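Quick one, tokens below. Sequence please?
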């Protein structure tokens, strides 16, 4: 389960604009791959109260991972697109990571 800060930059001191909330589970027996269901819930600015939903496989050791945007709410109603994930930092012992998500989305 995750309920992580969604910020404008990779530093914890970056401006908080929302939360990354969802679930992930192991999805591979051969490599570290996760099935992720994740919502980017916005709590600031123009997108306050809106959400983008991402569901897909995340092979976390790949440099760039792509997962589909399958929907959204508020200003992102009927959203479709994809995200590209890039890991900035990863602590294997604690499981803590800083991940950049670049979002390409079309919405109503």
């Amino acid at each position: 389960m995750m309920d992580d800060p969604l910020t404008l930059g990779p530093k914890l001191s970056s401006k908080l604009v929302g939360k990354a909330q969802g679930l992930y589970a192991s999805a591979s027996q051969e490599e570290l791959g996760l099935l992720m269901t994740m919502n980017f819930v916005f709590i600031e600015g123009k997108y306050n109260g809106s959400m983008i939903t991402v569901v897909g496989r995340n092979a976390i050791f790949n440099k760039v991972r792509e997962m589909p945007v399958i929907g959204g709410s508020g200003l992102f109603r009927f959203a479709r697109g994809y995200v590209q994930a890039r890991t900035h930092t990863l602590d294997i012992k604690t499981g803590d990571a800083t991940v950049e998500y670049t979002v390409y989305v079309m919405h109503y």
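Residues 89 and 98 are 5 Å apart (CA to CA). The chain has a mean pLDDT of 94.
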